[in-house]
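Posting this for the archive.
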Amino acid sequence: MSVEIEVGLENAANVKVPPAEPRKTDLTPQGLVSPKVRRLLTIGGVLLLAALLALFLYFHNRETTDDAQVDGHITPIAAKISGRIGKVLVEDNQAVKAGQVLALIEPADYQAAVDQAKGALALAEGEARSAGVDVPRTSENVASGQSSADAQLAGAQADLLRAQASYEQAQTADLAFAQANVDRSRANAQLAKSDLERYTPLMEKGEISKQQFDAAKANADASLSGLNADEQRFAQAKRNVDISRDQLEAAKARVEQAKAGVTSAHADQRRVAMRSDDAQAKLAKVDQTRAALDAALLSLSYCNIVAPVDGVATHKQVEPGQIVQPGQGLLVVVPLRDVWVTANFKETQLQKMKPGQKAYLKVDTYGKTFSGHVDSISGATGAVLSLLPPENATGNYVKVVQRVPVKIVLDPISPEVAVLRPGMNVEATVITD
């Protein structure tokens, strides 16, 4: 390069410079006067107006916000019973199915409670069966006893009537008849004695025959014997009255005894009711022990901690050997099929927004836009629903445009296309009518 320069400098004096050509005057119109420029400006203006019109038509019925996230059902999994974790059968961020066992609590204590409840149920059922058999047997015995008592009372009352009739007969008719016989025999004996006393002097004087005297004496002796016999029958009649009285009192005693038996039989009816109540109590105890067994079986089933829904197990906080308590959180299952978008629109954007309107959702993760529709609009702003809502009555009020959560339901998306997870950022656009 240096050689060339040197040669050039040496020959610079020998170079001939051609004469300059005369300058031509350009008479073509320049600037806005040019028709070509005017055409370009006209075309540009038309294109600009068309673009502005297209933008107006595109954006005039659209409300957009980038304050939106994917939302879903977060299902916390907690222990229902206390115990030691025996196994953990799931890893963090593992897909699980509904009903799949996630962790196991050692079941020994709860199995023992189940066995104890089964024994108590068997005992209660045996007692209930025994009581059920005893009730009809007692009822039959009581019914038989009552019938026997009623029959004995009827028999005793009949005996009493007979005894009373016998007593009345012995006291009235028999005794009176015996008394009349005694009186008649006494009169006859007195008459025969008087006749004998009159015949004796006559016999001694020989005024009557011996035969007549013997007849009078025999009549006196017979009358006296008849009197003695009637007196004995009268005495027997009096004894019969006493016997009838005793029989009457015995019959009365038997009636009272039979009445006591009837009363006892009626009391046995209450014993049947008591046995029946006892049987009902035994049956209630069976139901109680069966309920205790069901509760024990339910607690035993809680040893298997299962997933309630399909989803992804995450936020795992449980390890084998850990002692857990009822209600203690172990992990979270997130169902990825049932998700939606919660978009926080400004309150000024809600004037024409309503459920059912079309929506487009651009997910930052995939850079794709998915379709959906407005499901519902929240009943309050996000500030009101926050943990610490603003207190405007303090005097430090500054008007800020509030945002209202809007739930947008996505149209079905194939898992091969995209999997939306709660918390992903979304740009939401709603087509208002």
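Residues 110-299 form a domain with the Helix Hairpins fold (CATH 1.10.287.620). Residues 240 and 420 are 120 Å apart (CA to CA).
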